[in-house]
Amino acid sequence: MVLGLAGCGDQRSSDVAVERVDGLNGPDDDLSGVVANPPGGPSPYVTPSGAPTYEPPELDRTELDANIASLAPADRALFDHYIDARLGAGSWVMAAPMTVEEAKLRLLGPNPRQATDADVDAMMNAELSVYSFLQVGDGVVAYEDTGFADPPKRLLAALSQGGAVSAVATDNIEAMTRFGYARDGQIVFDAFEYAFVDDINEIPAEVRDLARLAWEDLEGPMVETADWSAVALAMSEKVTGVRATPAVRKVKESYVVSLPWAAGG
Question: For site-directed labelling of 147, which of 39, 58, 227, 231 has its Cα 20 to 30 A away?
């Protein structure tokens, strides 16, 4: 056997001889890749083998480019904004017309528990998450950073009661991307992994052109699609009129929800 350390790069030197290391090498070991160091230096290492690394195939984006080009100007502006914004993982909830106090009451109930420093350990252990709320025009953005504490359907519907519209868009480290929305107390559409619905026509017409950019047709060839999270956010803004903004992360007050959301489905 030979002693090896991966990832160091080829550091061979014409001034250093290759030598056998007693106790580490068998009589038949190939030492062509072992570099001996000067006396007192670190142990010898094996240079990388040069084996090729995996490169994913480049997918055809002809259909995606055509779908982007065919978007209505307002849809194209939404798509471009969220592709450039790169808001990252989390659960984004938008609703309008609504105030922060109304949104907190409908999502969290009366007297929601404000997060404290004592909640940090539970957050690190994925036992809970926290939501922040921000007024944006006549609507509200609510945000938590795990992407696993999105509201259950019944609360998404409750958030839209009284003539409001609510939407949710999620992204997390498992690349699970939910998009859903409700209007006047009724769910219009809601799907975890919305990009993998069997038929694009399952998605309502008012957001279908945007959804098509992210949709993975499992019956067709593998082709390039747009970022699922960015498209979900674009659709959420389209139906609510509320823009997801990173400013919500700077709100000092936040409120505790358990993981998964204890309220159920």
Answer: 58
Three state DSSP letters for 25-71: CCCCCCCCCEECCCCCCCCCEECCCCCCCCCCCCCCCHHHHHHHHCC
Coil, strand or helix: which one is 77?
A: helix
> Quick one: 113 and 184 in the same domain?
yes
Q: Which residues are CB-neighbours of 102 under 8 A, at least 6 positions away?
A: 140
265 in a structural domain = no
Residue 28 sits in the same domain as residue 103 = no
Do 192 and 128 sit in the same domain of this protein? yes
Question: What pTM did the predictor assign?
Answer: 0.77
Are the CB atoms for 238 and 78 separated by under 8 Å?
yes
103-123: per-residue pLDDT in tens? Answer: 999 999 999 999 998 887 778
